[in-house]
Design a protein that fits this description.
By secondary structure, the chain is of the alpha+beta class. Helix content is about 45%, strand content about 15%.
């Protein structure tokens, strides 16, 4: 019996000091397509190799499920250590006390930001604290079926006005039968449109759009449905919102169920082109149309990495953020899929390694979008996701024909201020 007791004690002692038991586990939550999941997995493996005793657990979700899952984790007190964070949710998570201020880690040298421009760095700051490290820079991007338009002799210019875009949409429909999708599930399009009118959707946390301007935006959909060149709601009945691979642009070649264009973001081109390849489709990229394209257009962080306030390993989480931000070997794996790297050193280092699609994105952001841009809008206030959800619902009802543009505008202007409370 004493021998068995001695052996049991030895086993317990060995277990207590074994590498497996000593491992620090960092959970990392992201949204994105398979390309992002694969590249992030490779980068996390490299981080583990360079940081003995640390292992990473990747938790990938689609955009449509991501925030509801994060809400569930937050309610249970178990947010992942590292959270991929979006501009529109940053203020809300900070106000709810869910994120750590990263400034102490910057001061301690765990996160180096010396190669990041202040404009980009400031985008992750709230009330003087740094709550998000920018993972990439991107711009609004209108993708289109270049193969289709080339076949009928149509070209798509940069910096289209909204009138230019509507005229082109009519022409594409007349020549090909393919309809237009004016940002059916693109939450930022309304604010972009309003910027082109010298207005804004939010101002200092308040809803600031006028009834007249919002009506003009909703009339774009109403006009397209009436004239036949805009896709109807039936196209979206079995589509997961935010899933790039299911966008009507890349769902097939049948004009009755597809769109010739998609309002997305520049960093989504790799995933979109991968989906388009199955149809032999080459994508083009240009700026979103607007009443005043230069006034509307801007560069923004594609997303951030933030650290959960509940993390049991904040220092290691901070090291992971620094790794994604500053490691050239890591970014040789990531290859700008989240956008042009925020560190100009990293961006320059990986540029020659980028595939043709990524190089086109880099050219678009640096040479097309950036020179024709205005300062980025302020970060969305808490409650903005609820406002965007209402906008999406109203657009669906418009495209279904159950409400008018005037009704949609009245409902948005009357309900949005309350949602921001």
């Amino acid at each position: 019996m004493r021998r068995l007791a001695f052996l049991a004690a030895v086993i317990l002692l060995v277990s207590a000091v074994s590498p497996a038991m000593a491992q620090t586990l960092l959970s990392v939550a992201i949204w994105g397509e398979q390309t992002r999941i694969d590249r992030t997995t490779e980068a996390l493996s490299l981080f583990e190799q360079e940081n003995a005793g640390v292992s990473c657990e990747l938790r990938p979700f689609g955009w449509s499920d991501y925030w509801s899952m994060m809400d569930s984790h937050a309610l249970g007190g178990g947010l992942p250590d590292v959270i991929q964070m979006d501009y529109q949710y940053l203020n809300q998570y900070v106000e709810d006390g869910l994120l750590l201020d990263l400034q102490p880690f910057v001061s301690a040298g765990l996160i180096s930001v010396g190669d990041v421009s202040m404009d980009i760095l400031d985008s992750g700051m709230v009330d003087g604290g740094l709550y998000g490290v920018c993972l990439g820079v991107n711009a609004p991007a209108l993708f289109y079926n270049k193969t289709l338009l080339d076949s009928v002799g149509l070209t798509v210019p940069d910096y289209m006005t909204m009138d230019d875009f509507i005229a082109l949409s009519r022409e594409v429909y007349a020549r090909t039968g393919c309809k237009t999708n004016i940002g059916y599930a693109t939450e930022q399009l309304l604010g972009y449109y309003l910027r082109g009118l010298g207005s804004s959707l939010f101002d200092q946390g308040q809803f600031s759009a006028s009834l007249e301007d919002v009506t003009g935006f909703f009339m774009l959909y109403e006009q397209g449905i009436r004239e036949g060149w805009h896709v109807g709601s039936e196209v979206f009945t079995d589509v997961s919102a935010g899933n790039v691979a299911e966008d009507p642009l890349v769902r097939g070649l049948d004009p009755s169920g597809s769109s010739w264009c998609a309002f997305l973001w520049s960093n989504q081109m790799s995933a979109l082109q991968s989906a388009a390849d199955q149809w032999g489709m080459e994508l083009g990229i240009t700026t979103w149309p607007s009443p005043d394209p230069k006034l509307s257009n801007f560069l923004k962080p594609s997303q951030f990495f933030s650290v959960s306030a509940a993390s049991a390993h904040p220092e290691n989480a901070a090291r992971l953020l620094d790794f994604f931000l500053n490691s050239v070997p890591a970014n040789e794996l990531l290859l700008g899929e989240r956008g042009i790297p925020a560190s100009h050193i990293v961006s320059s280092a990986i540029s020659p390694m980028m595939d043709e699609c990524s190089q086109r994105v880099a050219f678009y952001v640096g040479d097309v979008a950036a020179p024709f841009s205005s300062p980025a809008p302020e970060a969305d206030p808490s409650g903005a996701p609820e406002v965007f959800a209402l906008v999406s619902e109203l657009i669906q009802r418009l495209c279904y024909g159950s409400i008018s543009a005037q009704d949609a505008a009245s409902m948005l202007c009357s309900e949005a201020p309350g949602l921001l409370q």
